[in-house]
Amino acid sequence: MNKRTLDALISAGALDSLGKNRATLSAASEAVAADAARRREETELGQTNLFAGGAEDVESDHFPELPEWSLEAKLQKEKEVLGFYVTGHPPGNGGTVAACRLVGNSPASARA
User: How far is CA 73 from the centre of its chain?
Assistant: First the structure.
């Protein structure tokens, strides 16, 4: 996986379940992509590190904790990558959705 793909996944929120915020993951994406490329190259050459623990061996210093992006920044990045919003709606477009009540569509009203 290259850095561009990793950045797109982060911006879209696909990696939110990893326990780190998007800003932290984005800042670490270059180091993680380089580490993945190094591991792939070692595997292709048949070289292994006897002292490595496996996939969970990624160093924690790749993830300097940063403050989360603002909602507007998240929405902008989602729109750039996906073409639509996932986290919410832009505040300039009304921001809130009015609750609608459908009358006459419940089974009880059909019997009446």
Answer: 13
Instruction: For residue 25, give the DSSP letter.
Output: H
Regarding pTM above 0.85, the answer is no
Q: How far apart are CA 43 and CA 23, in angstroms?
A: 30
Number of domains comprising the chain = 1
Residue ranges, the chain, pLDDT below 70: 47-62, 91-112
| Full domain range(s) for residue 99 | 3-111
CB 1 within 8 A of CB 36: yes
Query: Tokens 């984005």 — which residue?
Result: 26
Q: Which amino acid is at 103?
A: V
With contact defined as beta carbons under 8 Å apart, do 57 and 51 qualify? no
